[in-house]
Amino acid sequence: MLLKTTSAAALLVAAAGAAQAQDDAMGEIVPLTGWNPDEVAQDAWNISAMMDSEVYGVGGEEIGEVEDVIIGPDGRLVAIVAEVGGFWDIGDTHIGVPWDEVEFGSPYQSVMIPVTEENVEEYDVYEMSGLPGSALGEQVTAGLDDAELTRAWRASELIGDYARMMGENDERQVYGYVMDMLVDDGEVVATLVNPTPSYGYGVYGYPAYTDYGAGWDPGSPYYDMPYTMDDIEGIQPMTTYDAE
């Protein structure tokens, strides 16, 4: 197995091109006309299904649980953060596992990772997370005009944020709150919002954005969508979302 420093370098290469990937893949506004979140959900899974799920080691033994999911600025999943090792001599510890080393149980409610008591130090969450203050996070933001642009972030940072849209006089107004995200092929493809009673009931799915003009802004209590209240008139709630 390669040491985690090699994996960190691979993540760094992916993150370094994230700003351009943002502009090319995630910055373009998707028209809501013809957008069908129920169709998107057919091949996707909701990220909340993985939060707090059981984590199993190479021998099939339960070794901990998922604490968070790390998402890159291009919307792709980078790693998971897990708390493991309560029965090991080292006690409880948090680790970061690259996404390409995570295997899934069905339906994404358990994960298997190649972590043992002997190699757990290779999965140092400080080295692997890409979050502010981590070794990878410091490397990712070095030398950039806008360090926030390529910051990885935690799924738990977005879930529970207020979702806003453009209202009158080009001012943002609260539409509801973010309750989940849909993931397909390792990428966040939709943001699920529960609106306030003034705008409807149920769960509404919208295209996901990582452009900092509209979308995720790590540390902010708001998720800003590039739509107006007129744009969402007539939009129907999802029929396929099943909260975990």
Walk me through this protein's architecture.
- Keywords: Signal.
- This is Sporulation protein YlmC, PRC-barrel domain family.
- This protein is of the alpha+beta class and 244 residues long.
- It has 2 domains: 131 residues, PRC-barrel domain (SH3 type barrels, Roll); 76 residues, SH3 type barrels (Roll), CATH 2.30.30.
- The chain is 18% helix and 31% strand.
- Helix 1 runs parallel beside helix 5.
- It is elongated, with a radius of gyration of 19 Å.
- The two termini are 34 Å apart.
Tell me, what is the CATH class of the largest domain? Mainly Beta
Low-confidence stretches: 1-26, 140-149
Number of domains: 2
- Helix tally equals 6
Q: State the helicity in percent bands.
A: 10-25%
* Radius of gyration of CA atoms, rounded to a whole number: 19 Å
